[in-house]
Amino acid sequence: MLHTPSGGAASGAATAQDGPMSIGAVLGLLREEFPDVTVSKIRFLESEGLIEPQRTPSGYRKFSGEDVERLAFVLRMQRDHYLPLKVIREQLDAVDRGEQVTVPGPSQPRDLLDGAAVPLQPVDAARLGRTELLTAAEVSEEDLREWESYGLLGPAADGRYDADAVEIARLVADLGRFGLRARHLRAARAAAEREAGLVEQVVAPLRRHRNPQTRARAEATARELASLSVRLHASLVQAALRSQQPSHG
């Protein structure tokens, strides 16, 4: 069984259900910790060989609790440690061999899986250099230059990148596999900037408040609003897609 650094199950929700689960049920479990995860993301991780759910005779995926724990582990390693899929796959392969995998932190290494230790070097979670970004996101220099030319991401004044750039690069690369290029995604960037402006309108008064506790609550409020905005956007896209489907009546 996969374990978190604190020794618990990789996903508490993942162990709450017995028997095979549909991809929709898996999505519901994972979204408790990973609100931005999508069906497409789960299918992509399957295509990369990180999970192998069973299939019914009619072709539907059926996931076990272990499948969900592996998904949660992969998503956590991407989110918290910015590890590329190649490294995460090596970790899971080590687990399958009965070994133990650790990801060293700034001080003490933190045990993540059962078995003999396989040390890995983490990427700086706060700011990344260009080479670190390319490695963590598993993208090429040519791709990164193209995305920067369209304003999808870019470095700060010191030439380093925020941690969010890793996930942005990965998502843009994933969309590129479906033929969507950087020029197609400029609208997404513009929409994100508009939504960020709306969030800032809400939290700006909190940041200026005289009460220190109210000011401290501003960042948590901004994160919650951003999460709700992402979920709303995903639901609106799904609704729009359904409305465009031809009627069979």
Structure, briefly:
This protein has 249 residues and is mainly alpha-helical. Helices cover 53% and strands 6% of the residues. A two-stranded antiparallel sheet has the order 1-2. The chain has a two-stranded antiparallel ribbon with strand order 3-4.
Your description of this structure?
The protein is mainly alpha-helical and 249 residues long. The N and C termini lie far apart (47 Å). The strands form three sheets. A two-stranded antiparallel sheet has the order 1-2. Strands 3-4 form a two-stranded antiparallel ribbon. A two-stranded antiparallel ribbon has the order 5-6. Helix content is 53%, strand content 6%. The chain contains nine helices and six strands, in the order ααββααβββααβααα. It has helices at residues 23-30, 39-47, 65-81, 85-96, 130-137, 141-149, 164-176, 186-207, 212-244, and strands at residues 54-55, 61-62, 102-104, 109-111, 127-128, 161-162. It is globular.
